[in-house]
Amino acid sequence: MQTPRPRYRGRFAPTPSGPLHLGSLLTALASWLAARNTGGAWLLRIDDLDRARCPRGTDAVILRQLEAHGLEWDESPRYQALHLDEYREALDRLQRAARLYACACSRGALRESALAGPDGPAYPGTCRDAGLASTRRALRARLPDREACFDDAWQGRQCRALRREVGDFVVRRADGQPSYQLACALDEDAQAVTDVVRGADLLGSTFCQRWLQQQLGLTAPRHAHLPVLTDARGRKLSKQNHAPAVDARAAARNLRHCLALLGQPGPGAGSPGAMLRAAAAQWDAALVPRTAQIVHLPL
Which domains does the chain have, with CATH numbers? Predict the structure, then answer.
């Protein structure tokens, strides 16, 4: 007898370093529609692990923006900062299994020695066999010298040579802080996430997280990486690039624009809630552009 497939559980995981911009709203909308179209759950996670980057109260701003656009979530949001013990326990397991090693490389040394990978600079393994003590040093994953692959719903078959193209990534910073890659890998399992919809700029991170999930005996979710929204100059819309916050007072206009970018039928007029109900019923993942980027022109 086949094991029944778990109910669809999607999620949206913003970092509260600033309000949502149009690129993050696009991701939230796509993940919400994919979940609601299947009758599944849509969860929130607040990626507030790096507290220095997260001004107090920004998470509340993001929640209000989502509510204004009719993007209602199921269950209480998961805040990473409240789960440090879980991340540390996983680090201990990985260390006991000899899956990690200490790294003493400075940022300058990393810039000079990094390998050119398809998703950005890859660590060349400088400290892999140095046998350094782990105290007050970063810990890196000891990746095997093999290829890893997964099938992405929008970007197609994805393969990387783990050691050369992904590189031994950081799982704990020198200050003792668990890394985003480790926290995210554990969070997906903790929230029983079955499907992750996010930007194509995170394809490289997916290989890191899937490797960690494999080492920890966790089931990796299915992945669907959206084209990244860029400005006319090809720069990703991001907080670092000073992308403006979405105006909650123009929620209907914002939703209509995002649906068009996702290739979906026009939702017609009405409140954000009415537009979303129509869009969820008509959601067609096959219409989402199969590209790495979408150029966004100002509204």
Answer: 9-80+191-295 (3.40.50.620), 85-172 (3.40.50.620)
